[in-house]
Write a sequence for this structure.
């Protein structure tokens, strides 16, 4: 698979997980591509943890002002028609109260126990952790959308080596190679990209996993 195709491929598969009317929180980077791939007839309510419920299209030009209207990643943002701006305390009460159907985040590492590390490396010019810890324990579904490896090194491990963002929280991992469900018995590969074999996935994965008997084509 061409490097330039990977993020769109993952985002398109993630979009299939969302249902009409879901309240969804998107992490920065790859997850923000997901709305462009929603199936016909599926409309979701995007929530930004810094205080928007019903986030609209990214503003441009004069609409991008004033600068204080941003999403959680610091990019210009606005509420869509019917959406609203709320204070941070209310926003996090909304998350902690279990009102977010799904959160989609990237990850530096995720392990076979469903624990996630997505801290930003110190010193990099990137936003901080934001609401990730609260979202991981407050959202009903936690989907990690990321490339399977980083510079050839596995990102799906037996145990995370970086500081945890939260433990035992991830419900599904979607990469360009496959889809893993996180169960109480460990990772189960339920779908595979036909460009790869099961052995390819094993070679790129440091975690233990089983393969579902009815393994499906993730492009179908």
């Amino acid at each position: 698979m061409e490097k330039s195709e990977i993020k769109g491929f993952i985002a398109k598969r993630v979009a299939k997980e969302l249902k009409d009317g879901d309240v969804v929180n998107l992490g920065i980077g790859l997850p923000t591509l997901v709305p462009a791939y929603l199936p016909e007839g599926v409309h979701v309510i995007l929530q930004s943890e810094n205080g928007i419920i019903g986030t609209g299209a990214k503003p441009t030009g004069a609409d991008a002002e004033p600068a204080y209207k941003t999403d959680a990643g610091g990019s210009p943002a606005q509420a869509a028609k019917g959406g609203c701006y709320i204070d941070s305390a209310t926003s996090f009460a909304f998350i902690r109260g279990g009102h977010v159907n799904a959160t989609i985040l990237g990850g530096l590492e995720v392990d076979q126990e469903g624990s996630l590390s997505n801290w930003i490396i110190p010193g990099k010019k990137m936003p901080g952790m934001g609401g990730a810890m609260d979202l991981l324990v407050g959202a009903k579904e936690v989907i990690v959308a990321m490339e399977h490896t980083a510079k050839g090194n596995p990102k799906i491990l037996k145990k995370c080596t970086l500081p945890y963002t939260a433990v035992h929280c991830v419900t599904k991992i979607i990469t360009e190679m496959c889809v893993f469900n996180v169960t109480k018995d460990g990772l189960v590969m339920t779908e595979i990209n036909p460009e790869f074999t099961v052995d390819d996935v094993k070679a790129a994965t440091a975690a233990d996993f089983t393969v579902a008997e009815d393994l499906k084509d993730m492009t179908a």
User: Anything to note?
Assistant: The first helix runs from residue 3 to 15. Helices lie at 3-15, 88-96, 132-138, 198-203.
